[in-house]
């Protein structure tokens, strides 16, 4: 789905795209921002088979499933324009690493706070989200590899304007806000209670940082929002919208994975038990360095987390 391959991909069979769009939607969107949804998908898996009228996918038995642990870098970026050509100054708004271990039959979603203080190759130590603006996905990829001492196999970048469009296409999401949220920067302005959020309000909600806990609390809100979206919308009616949802994803996603590769990982993940999926956050502690607030990683705990 790289932008430079856009012209070559125009001839991709549309039926193939539609057959794989549901798996792609859940793996890109749900895994990207929360790590929930696999179990929800498994509940409705039979509907997917019926929807494809029993026609076998072109990427089933021929596709080699992974046998060794793999790491996928999952990034949410707000360029403000929804275009696949990323602006160099754009910052990574959500950074996660999805680890699939076929042998152990488990998966981990590792959230990295955007304010995490790390070494960025070629630059001074600074917030990890700056790596994307300095050198796009390639530099962010290298920064995360060095930080976690891993080898990242693939990446997926979702423009958050695509997130807005997906929420609108689904008809919004109801969220129970447990504390007042007021943040001029993100646009969040929510009182305590239930709110029906359209795409723009949803984006403001998941980006709001002006609360106790800052970026850590923001990650928890992201996870809660996507969990509620999965519960409220991943049903047979959503599957009927799969074509439009897939179109939005294609227009707002960058990746070095094609649909075949994405399906390969999702097929493996779908063999895992729901309880074998865990979402964790890199352990950090707030510190001020040169009058700038950071989340400084507790490296001893990070190393233990990555070993396990």
UniProtKB/TrEMBL annotation:
<dbReference type="Pfam" id="PF03816">
    <property type="entry name" value="LytR_cpsA_psr"/>
</dbReference>
<feature type="transmembrane region" description="Helical">
    <location>
        <begin position="21"/>
        <end position="41"/>
    </location>
</feature>
<keyword id="KW-1133">Transmembrane helix</keyword>
<protein>
    <recommendedName>
        <fullName>Cell envelope-related transcriptional attenuator domain-containing protein</fullName>
    </recommendedName>
</protein>
<feature type="domain" description="Cell envelope-related transcriptional attenuator">
    <location>
        <begin position="92"/>
        <end position="230"/>
    </location>
</feature>
<keyword id="KW-0812">Transmembrane</keyword>
<keyword id="KW-0472">Membrane</keyword>
<dbReference type="InterPro" id="IPR050922">
    <property type="entry name" value="LytR/CpsA/Psr_CW_biosynth"/>
</dbReference>
<dbReference type="InterPro" id="IPR004474">
    <property type="entry name" value="LytR_CpsA_psr"/>
</dbReference>
């Amino acid at each position: 789905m790289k932008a430079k391959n856009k012209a070559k991909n125009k001839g991709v069979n549309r039926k193939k795209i539609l057959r794989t769009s549901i798996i792609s939607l859940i793996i890109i969107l749900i895994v990207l921002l929360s790590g929930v949804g696999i179990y929800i998908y498994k509940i409705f898996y039979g509907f997917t088979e019926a929807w494809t009228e029993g026609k076998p996918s072109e990427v089933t038995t021929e596709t080699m499933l992974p046998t060794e642990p793999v790491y996928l870098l999952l990034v949410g970026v707000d360029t403000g324009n929804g275009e696949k050509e990323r602006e160099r100054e754009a910052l990574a708004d959500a950074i996660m690493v999805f680890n699939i271990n076929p042998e152990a039959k488990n998966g981990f979603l590792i959230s990295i706070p955007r304010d995490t203080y790390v070494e960025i190759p070629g630059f001074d130590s600074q917030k990890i989200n700056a790596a994307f603006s300095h050198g796009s996905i390639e530099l962010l990829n290298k920064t995360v590899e060095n930080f976690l001492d891993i080898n990242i196999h693939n990446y997926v970048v979702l423009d958050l304007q695509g997130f807005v469009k997906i929420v609108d296409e689904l008809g919004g999401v109801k969220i129970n806000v447990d504390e007042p949220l007021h943040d001029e920067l993100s646009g969040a302005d929510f009182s305590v209670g239930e709110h029906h959020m359209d795409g723009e309000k949803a984006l403001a909600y998941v980006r709001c940082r002006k609360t106790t806990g800052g970026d850590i609390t923001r990650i928890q809100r992201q996870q809660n929002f996507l969990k509620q979206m999965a519960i409220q919308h991943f049903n047979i009616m959503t599957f009927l919208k799969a074509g439009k949802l897939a179109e939005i994803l294609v227009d707002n996603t960058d990746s070095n994975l094609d649909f075949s590769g994405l399906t390969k990982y999702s097929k493996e993940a779908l063999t895992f038990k729901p309880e074998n999926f865990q979402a964790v956050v890199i352990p950090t502690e707030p510190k001020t360095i040169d009058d700038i607030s950071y989340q400084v990683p507790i490296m001893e705990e990070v190393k233990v987390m990555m070993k396990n």
